[in-house]
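input
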Amino acid sequence: MSEHYEKHAEQVAAAFFDLLDSDVSSRISDEHRQELAMLVEAAISTAVLEQLERAADQVSALSQSIRHGAEHYDNVG
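output
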């Protein structure tokens, strides 16, 4: 995925670990921290792709509407 998403996911994961007590945080391995960042990145990517699909559907519907209007512009009335 995008380097931007990866950095943002790492920031979100780091912010989460900052909320934990130092005792709890110290018991979480780097591997688990990386796994959390990967899960966050996957969630970000999924949300972005869902929004892109929604936007593509809207553009497609608008395109069909414009085409219909162009094909039937003189049939008004």
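quick obs: The first helix runs from residue 3 to 19.
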